[in-house]
Amino acid sequence: MIYRLLLFLLKLLSYIPYRVLYFLSDGLYYLLYYVVGYRRKIVRRNLVESFPEKGLPEIKQIEKKFYRFFMDMILESCKLASISPEEIRRRMKFTNVEQVNALLRQGKSVSVYLGHYGNWEWVSSMPLWLEKNIAGAQIYHKLRNKSMERLMLHIRGRMGAVSVDMHKTARYITGLANARRLCVVGFIADQSPRKQESRYFLPFLNHKTPVLTGTEKITKHYGFEAWYLDVRRTGRGYYEAEFVRLHEKPRTLPDFELTALYFQHLEQTILREPELYLWTHKRFKHAQKLDS
């Protein structure tokens, strides 16, 4: 019952024209930033520590741009409940995808590294750009609320993507391998590991940061190709995601080198337009500042 109500309300919201949606977003931005102050202390701390070379006025400017975009992204994501494949292809374009498809035709599966940057929810439309009969999957962290979990799985799967619980990743990929099915699997690999799992650290945004290395292990174990998705916002409600090859032979790299390459690419993406990164999460809760 709760799920049906949530889905009904989400669909109603998704039918709002973009012009009205962004007018609503502008109003909600003021409420979120100035009235509620949603996670402002976390955002400010993340920005100040990540960009020590920037003065407070510039930090505040990035902060406000982030909250404006954050509200846009939330409302844009609601559009997944009703948007057509044709419309999402027009608004979320994937470039250099022909190289990925060429590898798939050669019988090679692909790992795609991405971050909480731009509208990562719209990245679930990637299967629309891939070779047919390819398993397009995205690894996600299971939600505690069952109704919200069901709702998110529904909208993320409308364009053909399969959502795989991060704890079942190996089982899912092994099943595909045993069935000799090719796949393209997206990993949002910039999440912070739990303290007891923080074993490997990398320099990232002026922090000595603990990082997850599971994506690298899976990529090497199954012999996947390794690519990074470099997302740009080309306009309000429009994005381009470019496939960038991380390395031609991931298995030949020393341990953790593939993970380091990913974070180097992600950092460059963030430095280009920092307001498009998700600054509200405690990404550096187990990290240390490099200048400390």
From TrEMBL:
Keywords: Acyltransferase, Cell inner membrane, Cell membrane, Membrane, Transferase, Transmembrane, Transmembrane helix. The chain crosses the membrane at residues 20-36. It comes from the Bacteria. GO terms for molecular function: acyltransferase activity. GO terms for cellular component: plasma membrane. One of its GO terms (biological process) is glycolipid biosynthetic process. InterPro entries: LipA_acyltrans. The keyword Nucleotidyltransferase does not apply. Its main location: membrane. It is found in: Cell inner membrane. PANTHER family: LIPID A BIOSYNTHESIS LAUROYL ACYLTRANSFERASE (PTHR30606), PHOSPHATIDYLINOSITOL MANNOSIDE ACYLTRANSFERASE (PTHR30606:SF10). This is Lysophospholipid acyltransferase family protein.
